[in-house]
């Protein structure tokens, strides 16, 4: 059963397709077009409750889904879109109990998705060289999951280190990279991944993809190298008016995957 809204929780107020993120605080006040809403009137209410502002304007108070949360959470770096996060989890085959190394942590959107997928029996090790990005990401993760991500999530390990210089871990199940130069990680990935493990990188441009694919093909430890992108288009369904929306989330990046193998001598 879902818990009622609590102080310190981030929720969304939604009206006519517009979303207004709100951090609930005791005795806090939300202001909207000259109207007000006391946070205390929301704390203890159920998820999905319709509420009225001081002059009668109605909004819905919702606990955001993970995809909704990452689109509106505070950012220290550009986030991955939910459409890409979903495919990364599937094509990297992130499973419960897996040990996953990722870099970099950015604003925490990918880390949050990985933590949810591996569960408490798995482990996510995140490499990040920028302390400000790491701090923001930890705050975002803790805000969504509830509690202090740094202390309350023993299956998350943050390394303030440069993954281009090497990977400490061995026998890793999955390696997921959101970096500008993942080709520099390929030799380290060959040593860190277990046999059968999966390498995945997300990149926005073709020249970057060409370099990482070339590095993977040069490394005998990798096979089944694939690259693809995905486009997301929503539709308007309103009676007899059925058409695709005029705007869509088109190109955001390329996903490249490869499989770690062990060859005969």
Count of individual helical segments: 7
Order of helices and strands: EEEEEEHHEHEHHEEHEHEEEE
- Judged by helices, strands and strand pairing, the structural class is alpha/beta
What about the largest sheet?
7 strands, mixed
Task: Provide an overview of this structure.
The protein is of the alpha/beta class and 265 residues long. It is 25% helix and 31% strand. It contains 7 helices and 15 strands. The strands form 4 sheets. Strands 9-8-7-10-11-15-12 form a 7-stranded mixed β-sheet, with helices on both faces. Strands 2-1-6-5 form a 4-stranded antiparallel β-sheet, with no helix packed on it. The longest helix is centred in the middle third of the chain and has 15 residues, at 131-145. 33% of the residues are buried.
What keywords describe this structure?
single chain, 265 residues, alpha/beta, seven-stranded mixed sheet, 7 helices, 15 strands
